[in-house]
Amino acid sequence: MEVVLRELTKKFPGRGRKNRGEVTAVDRMDLEIPDGSLVGLLGPSGCGKSTVLNLISGLLGPTEGRILFGEEDVTLLPPEKRGIGLVFQNYALYPHMTVKQNILFPLENLKGKARPSREEMLKKAEEAAKLVQIDGLMDRKPSELSGGQQQRVAIARALVKRPQVLLLDEPLSNLDARLRIQTREEIRRIQRETKITTVFVTHDQEEAMSISDLIVVMREGVVQQTGRPQEVYDSPDNLFVAKFLGTPPINVFCGRVRDHRLYIGEEAVLPADGVSDAEVYVGVRPEGFRLCETGPLSCSLDRVEVMGRDVSVISENAASVNAVVRSIVGAESGLTEALLSGPKGREVRFALVPHKVFLFDRETEQRIFRGEH
Ligand code: ATP
Predict the structure, then answer these.
(1) What is the pTM of this model?
(2) Looking at ligand 1, which residue's alpha carbon is closest to its atom 14?
(3) 358 φ, ψ to 5°?
(4) Ligand 1 atom 16, closest CA
């Protein structure tokens, strides 16, 4: 089922007659979610992600704008008529019911013709349980399950009515690191198998990048960029998006363009063809540095962190906006030996990988340049 949001706005009223403190949680959001895709809604706390999900589910009504499921305008439909499945962060299972009873619950609540026979219900519950691989735990109570298993029950319960759209709000937040990775892969597998259009809310960029077909990055209710995860990472539209995606985060310098060359401090570090003279922010991904004795960018070595496959070289540069410059170089590059034994404060020189370097307007913070691949 394709889901389309048109100029969707949600305002929460403020207090008193003057409506002081009114919040625009979602601001004229346009989004097309292709049928069968998994979309990750991403952004810092308070950016409006959950509000978007609650608008799609019908738990909240929009102040303006429309929501379409396929051809049908569902803006005014109550949640139970939308054919959605919802999973929240706190699994919200009924503690006194077994796993089976929890999964059966949405079916038992159906009225009239929509209510399947008992036999059909049991079959559907069994299918949903199999899909999330908890069919061996049907007689347990939620308290007898691990966090990951509880979340699977919550997903099975959301799937049992075969929803047209599955909505997941921070479904992995309560799980420990290892289980988070396992469960997010599970969610991806289930989504691929069922082909249910799925919207997934998270503040964790790595989580969203790893499983989504499309990511939507939001800030203060406004969509900043929509695209495939790699595209958005490789071509961020603005500084906010560039900073939000990537671990370790992008390095930012104050720089300037003069005569089509990019300067950081006094050093001309890259050609910047087609860019007029301007003060800019320079974003350099950590993997965009090459250790090179004749490289144009000089930094002062702080420390080296060895992480197996990669080595992080942490250094300082007066033009850096962040406290340190964090670059990642392959452990195989022979230079690291010398670095590891080098004294703190020693000069390290880098060449920059052009397509890992972005320039942003100092005022608008919009991207104005990306180095050639
Ligand atoms: P988080 O990751 O912390 O859950 P979020 O991105 O999901 O954040 P929302 O919960 O959608 O953010 O909230 C968006 C904005 O709307 C916030 O500023 C929040 O304070 C405000 N807000 C949300 N619900 C209400 C409400 N019922 N009344 C007033 N303001 C609200």
Answers:
(1) 0.89
(2) 48
(3) -125, 145
(4) 25
